[in-house]
Amino acid sequence: xxxxxxxxxxxxxxxxxxxxxxxxxxxxxxxxxxxxxxxxxxxxxxxxxxxxxxxxxxxxxxxxxxxxxxxxxxxxxxxxxxxxxxxxxxxxxxxxxxxxxxxxxxxxxxxxxxxxxxxxxxxxxxxxxxxxxxxxxxxxxxxxxxxxxxxxxxxxxxxxxxxxxxxxxxxxxxxxxxxxxxxxxxxxxxxxxxxxxxxxxxxxxxxxxxxxxxxxxxxxxxxxxxxxxxxxxxxxxxxxxxxxxxxxxxxxxxxxxxxxxxxxxxxxxxxxxxxx
Length: 276
Prior knowledge:
Elements: H1 3-9, H2 11-31, E1 38-39, E2 42-43, H3 44-60, H4 69-91, H5 96-120, H6 129-135, H7 139-155, H8 159-183, H9 189-215, H10 219-228, H11 233-236, H12 242-253, H13 257-274
Antiparallel strand pairs: 1-2
Helix pairs in contact: 1-2, 2-3, 2-4, 3-4, 4-13, 5-7, 5-9, 7-8, 8-9, 8-10, 9-12, 9-13, 12-13
């Protein structure tokens, strides 16, 4: 069929295809750090992607005409959801300042999760409590250092401060990963479940912070972070509750769990590809 005639005969589908292409391209550009200039507190690329996603959503709700309108609308709605999920992982990482604020926004949850770690040992068996305490003994100091570094980066988002944040978030992530492996050796089922659940909360937050830091880091910096990361995601993945992680991320960003699952999956792929 003639492309021009096809566009003329199916304007709604053609418009949807164009918007999906814009969303996909802006997502890739954002991931590569291409901004095309600033737009308010964000970038031109992120603004174009957000507008295209919004227009696609409006288009998918158009009732249309004809016997096939219901099926067409459903298909467009599905494409709109896919486009939204493609774009979401990159929206928060468009500039250093927005990422810095996003990282800082996670710090209250991190401090709360670490406080829960401190009280969890009391509900474990006498034999398991010392193992858990030893595995998580560095969390208080590591969280305080990371929170301070996050706030320093928010106040001064320069390359030098980012380098310090990169080192600190990887150091804490390694401590969390090590604690997961140690805690997994607890043989009492109830104690192990309580211990892993407590560490899981910290792991989810630190992993989210790591993903944000990675999004504004150069390839060379990410490679250096990977060198410092000796306990990889694949080693601790069997001990992580992905459903609980998705609920935490969804609650933090006030978004659907499905969107959080897509963000987590993208973050995990990106970290694995980087060797983290």
